[in-house]
Amino acid sequence: MSAPSSGGASRDGYGKGLLRLSEDPRVVVLEADLGKSTKSCHFREKFPERTVSLGIAEQNMMLVAAGMASSGKVPFASTFAIFTERAFEQIRNGIARPGFAVHICGSHGGIHTGTDGSSAQSIEDLGIYRAIPKMTVIHPCDDISAEELTVQLLSLDGPSYMRTARNKTPRAYDEESVSKIKIGKGSVLSHGSDLAIVACGVMVHEAMNAAEVLSQKGVDCTVVDMHTIKPFDSQLMENIAKTCGCIVTAEDHSIIGGLGSSISEWAASNHPIPIEMVGVNDRFGESGGSSELMEELGLTSESIIQASLRAIKRKNTV
Mean pLDDT, to the nearest integer, of 150-176? Predict the structure, then answer.
């Protein structure tokens, strides 16, 4: 699958997805004073009667969403990823335990957020929500896939958490290829038999760049956009583990609890193979430009290349 050159921020895709869902009168949108940033503002402008602005009261927003879901509505509640963590107890006990179909969007996730600094850079959110029973966890890589995945949330029976990014990234999909995306199924962007690079979010583009360089070195890579962290696509992982024999994971998230952890857990129980993880290594971020922070924390295509060479070396010495 070729990657289109133009790009957009995944948060923009979330806003467009909400507008596509507006035809269903059950859909309501909740905000916590950040609709302009999460892009739910576009829905509010057209459907103010179906939008509830809660102010800076994230815990309250989640329980209001739970109440609306219990009354037959399908709520979409958004704020910054780091601020959703303020409402962990409400999400766990008020939404997930009863299994309400409330769809939470955490924008501005990860180190890629940049200058806001470590207090605003959620590098643990995917792990937190992955640990909650019944919760679907999604992290799209571009605006087109975020829009499509947002629309698909309407068919889920239970709750979900979607993380979106602040900044634009090159697109991995176009209008034709995005139709193949399905919640719960990883998307194979390129095929190779030497190594599999499994990435999510802004790291998908870095993975594609790494695969291109590795190809010039004679290493053929499978690249997977694992946009759905949970439920886990075990069938796809079984296929690439058998075909490639080693895996590199890449995520703008802690290597504890996120994509790398989920794949390592699966491999340990099902198909033990060499795995190298590229992600945030048990530390907080800091303030700076997005690109310089990604470089500082090793979230780059070069880091993926080096991890790939290590994984292949381990595979060849087994």
Answer: 94
